Amino acid sequence: MFITLAKNLKSTPLQVADDPRWARIVARDKSADGEFWYSVATTGVYCRPSCP
After folding, report:
1. Rounded to two decimals, what is the model's pTM?
2. How far is CA 41 from the centre of its chain?
3. Which of 4, 5, 19, 44 could form a disulfide with 11 if both were Cys (CB 3.0 to 4.6 A apart)?
4. How far, in Å, CA of 50 to CA of 28, rounded?
5. Which residues, given as ranges, of the chain have pLDDT below 50?
6. What are the φ and ψ backbone dihedral angles of 25, each rounded to 5 degrees?
7. How far apart are alpha carbons 45 and 18 in whole angstroms?
């Protein structure tokens, strides 16, 4: 699984496990809400880190 980060209008694919935000999503960290959101490319669903 890969994620894409926007940096200066360029995209860089990273391994999900290498991104520190992934641990916050897995933990459903409510303190991360408002800092970022994530989405599923195949369904178009997006969510806050605390969403189940």
Report:
1. 0.63
2. 11
3. 4
4. 4
5. 7, 9
6. -70, -45
7. 22
Residues in the chain: 52
The encoded tokens of residue 27 equal: 């933990």
Percentage above 70 pLDDT, the chain: 73
Distance CA 25, CA 22 (A): 5
Cβ(30)–Cβ(50) below 8 Å: yes
How distant is the alpha carbon of residue 25 from its chain centre? 7
**pLDDT tens digits, residue range 29-39?**
999 999 998 88
Q: Rounded CA gap, 21 and 50, in Å?
A: 12
If you compute the radius of gyration of the chain from its CA atoms, what whole number of angstroms results?
11
Q: Are 51 and 28 in contact (CB under 8 A)?
A: yes
d(CA 12, CA 28): 25
